[in-house]
Amino acid sequence: MSVQPDPRVARTNHALRQAVVELASQRPISQVTVAELAARAGTTRATFYKRFISPQELLIEVLCADLDRGHRLEDENRSTGRYSGPELTRMGVDEVAEHVLRFEAVYRHVLEDRADHVVHQALVRHFADYTLRQLLDLDLAGLPPANRHLMAQFLAHGFAGAITSWLSDETLTKQELVDAAIACAPAWWS
Questions:
Q1: CA distances, 145 to each of 2, 34, 139, 149 (Å)
Q2: How far apart are CA 62 and CA 124, in angstroms?
Q3: Is residue 15 part of a domain?
Q4: Structure confidence by residue, pLDDT tens digits, 54-79
Q5: CATH number (domain holding residue 128)
């Protein structure tokens, strides 16, 4: 018998997640206080602190959950066997670009306020963790004999840097980001 989660807790968690995205879309998350976040969510500071340490932690959780949704979609597509490696890579990069567009205002504030570096670091950490799992779990033909952790860090920082450059130049399109990332992906990745 499974225990059903308390609907009040689910509503509060949803309200907090929605509030943090709204506030981080308006200004840098480093300038958002717990008091205003709790007020926007219709809860108390004590309730917030029972769940999270800071607004940054909550925002990172929201962003990573959305990225994880995209990874699950990629895994589902991989399991069907209908797509080639290059097609899966392109779909994965495209989904990350869509994620950035869904949270574009948040990411733009990260670029503007260096105090928000934790969001960029979380993005890099997320990409590195995902890449490391892929390097360890998938049978990637032609994978060079090198330290997998360092390889994952190299790719994650490069991809996060490409996203930063894309957001910094409003003349660049999503397609240009996807094409550049695919062009720079190692041959063994596909």
A1: 45, 47, 13, 12
A2: 15
A3: no
A4: 999 999 999 999 999 988 988 898 88
A5: 1.10.357.10
